[in-house]
């Protein structure tokens, strides 16, 4: 179900995905204006209530700008848009969006961004590391200069996760990254959504 940015109604959904793409106002600072959309008031309330919320790429930028996740996202270190199938390591498998992964698992998810460099103060980075809130880390190549190779983070409750790569582009054979088995057969992104379904079912039990 698609929700309208100008609405104040989440229409009874059990989980939310703030999708990637380029929202209005990105020329000011990625996600800064979108984070002020009317519906974000309800998103904040839902996050506080424990609803699973996933921010992908521009959605991650919105979560950071709305202070639902710490830190910030800036222009890629090389000042260029990057598009690649990116290796990641799962650092936290206990969130609402990562429970179907195992900690330390290596996955491949498409990445495409120009403002994907994750930044935070040294103290904040130490806190994220110490509390296990780094959800994903880049492997092989750091595509955008993110500090400590951070690709995604979670909030303290584990219900809000944001990352720059696009798991929704790796859920269906024929449309995902290449694998050793076949071209475009990668479906590593599917576990994000099966994890969220399990979290919703568990919360309703």
UniProtKB/TrEMBL annotation:
Transmembrane segment boundaries: none
Coiled coil: none
Alphabetized InterPro entries for the sequence: Class_I_gatase-like, PRibForGlyAmidine_synth_PurQ
Record key words, sorted: ATP-binding, Cytoplasm, Glutamine amidotransferase, Hydrolase, Ligase, Nucleotide-binding, Purine biosynthesis
Pfam families found in the cross-reference section: GATase_5
PROSITE patterns given in the database record: GATASE_TYPE_1
Highest taxon of the lineage: Bacteria
SUPFAM superfamilies to which the protein is assigned, alphabetical: Class I glutamine amidotransferase-like
Listed Gene3D superfamilies: 3.40.50.880
Name used for this protein in its record: Phosphoribosylformylglycinamidine synthase subunit PurQ
Organism for this UniProt entry: Microbacterium pumilum
Taxonomic placement: Bacteria, Bacillati, Actinomycetota, Actinomycetes, Micrococcales
């Amino acid at each position: 179900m698609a929700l309208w940015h100008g609405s104040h109604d989440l229409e009874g959904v059990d989980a939310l995905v703030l999708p990637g793409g380029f929202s209005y106002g990105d020329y000011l600072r990625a996600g800064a204006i979108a984070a002020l959309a009317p519906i974000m008031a309800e998103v904040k309330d839902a996050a506080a209530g424990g609803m699973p919320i996933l921010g992908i790429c521009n959605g991650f930028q919105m979560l950071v700008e709305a202070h639902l996740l710490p830190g910030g996202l800036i222009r890629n270190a090389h000042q260029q848009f990057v598009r690649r199938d990116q290796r990641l390591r799962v650092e936290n498998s206990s969130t609402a969006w990562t429970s179907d992964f195992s900690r330390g698992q290596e996955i491949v998810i498409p990445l495409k961004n120009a403002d994907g460099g994750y930044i935070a103060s040294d103290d904040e980075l130490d806190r994220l590391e110490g509390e296990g809130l780094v959800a994903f880390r880049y492997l092989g190549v750091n595509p955008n200069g993110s500090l400590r190779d951070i690709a995604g983070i979670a909030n303290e409750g584990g219900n809000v996760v944001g990352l720059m790569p696009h798991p929704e582009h790796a859920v269906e054979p024929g449309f995902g990254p290449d694998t050793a088995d076949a071209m475009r057969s990668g479906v590593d992104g599917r576990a994000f959504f099966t994890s969220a379904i399990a979290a919703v079912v568990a919360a309703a039990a």
